Amino acid sequence: MESDEAVEYPALALWLSAMSQFHGDRLLRFKGLLRVTHQAEPMVIQAVQHVVYPVCTLPSWPEGVVGTRLTGITHGMSEAFFEEIVRSLQKTVKVPSRLVRP
């Protein structure tokens, strides 16, 4: 998922925590570079299955790209459930976003 708008980090952190707690067995990897409100520097988030790692802040944006980029790798999710998860993520970050699929 990609968005040029800033996201509210606390809401995204709660979403990721719930996702890893309830669906961690199907969440192989989740990572992202975040443009967050009230902060100029990008944040990095990462999770693997039931583990959400502490966030870190980068000193500057790589390659001059400013915006939120989230990537998730899942296993064993139906297409309908995957779409529901994506919709819940888009509602959580409350910004216009584009879903980019491989």
- The helix/strand series, from N terminus to C terminus, equals EHEEEEEH
Cα-to-Cα separation, first versus last residue = 11 Å
Helical run tally: 2
3D shape: globular
- Based on secondary structure, the structural category is alpha+beta
Largest sheet: 6 strands, antiparallel
The total beta strand count reads 6
Q: Compute the gyration radius: what is it? A: 13 Å
Note poorly predicted spans: none
Please describe what this structure looks like.
With 102 residues, the chain is an alpha+beta fold. Helix content is 29%, strand content 26%. The protein is built from 2 helices and 6 strands; from the N terminus they run βαβββββα. The protein has helices at 9-23, 79-93; strands at residues 2-3, 27-34, 43-48, 51-52, 56-57, 68-74. Strands 1, 2, 3, 4, 5 and 6 form a 6-stranded antiparallel β-sheet that branches. Helix 1 (9-23) runs antiparallel to helix 2. The longest helix is centred in the first third of the chain and has 15 residues, at 9-23. The relative contact order is 0.29. The mean pLDDT is 89.
Describe, in short, the structure shown.
The chain has 102 residues and is α+β, with helices and mostly antiparallel strands.
Describe the secondary structure blueprint for this structure.
Blueprint: E1 2-3, H1 9-23, E2 27-34, E3 43-48, E4 51-52, E5 56-57, E6 68-74, H2 79-93
Helix pairs in contact: 1-2
Notable traits:
102 residues; alpha+beta; 2 helices; 6 strands
